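seq:
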Amino acid sequence: MENQTPIMPTVNSPQTAEAQQSITDSRPKANSFLIILLSILLLISCVIAGFFAYGDWRLNNQLTRTSTVSKELTSDQSKNWKTYTNEKYKYSVRYPENWFLRDISDGSQLEIYYQPDKTKPVGEILFGSVDERLYIDASKVANEEIVIGKSIAKCLTDDTTKIWCYLNNDNEYLSILIIKEKDEEYNKTLDQILSTFKFTNNAKEEACIKEKYTWLSKYNECESPILVETFCKKEGGVFSQCESPCRHDGSNGFCTEECIAVCKFE
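struct:
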């Protein structure tokens, strides 16, 4: 009979068992750490993406709100334009010499229109004074804010040709009915007329703009990252060194963490 080498049973030493157990135990820990790390990286990526998305949204929103009447005039375009000033309701507006202006009711209602063939007007702008109750009611149903000149108006756009806008100037309320046409050249001129509109009694606004700060007509505030307290005190406002740039957005969405100086007026 041939000699056979007996097969000995494998016996794990305590050191070998501990090493195997250590390897087994370390695998879940390594996997958990990897999952946590990937989760943190994903969260950071979402935050960064949200930051840029919000920035794009604010820029697009601002461009949408201001594009309606932002076609500014050059000096050559406006050199022959006429200026109408309403002393009663403290505003002025400019218009081309080939457009017509009609004072309907002693300054309370004003019409600016274009009538090339003297048969019927081709669109028009109607200015009128309104009381506080009507202004409040109109503000509740307004579906858009439009910058007219340097003032923010609450507007209602219920069709493609007519826009009803309402402005508040130191508790004097003004309505502006804008009637547009299909003629793009006409609409461009109409927007340029609206861009010249301004209230003539707001010295605070003029001072703010003169210093190249930003004036918020809706809130009667002057703001800028470089606005200084001495200016605010000189103009009789209440100064705040650090306000959120999103304080008037009316939402709890993402906002950049930065300060903007604000001068508030009653």
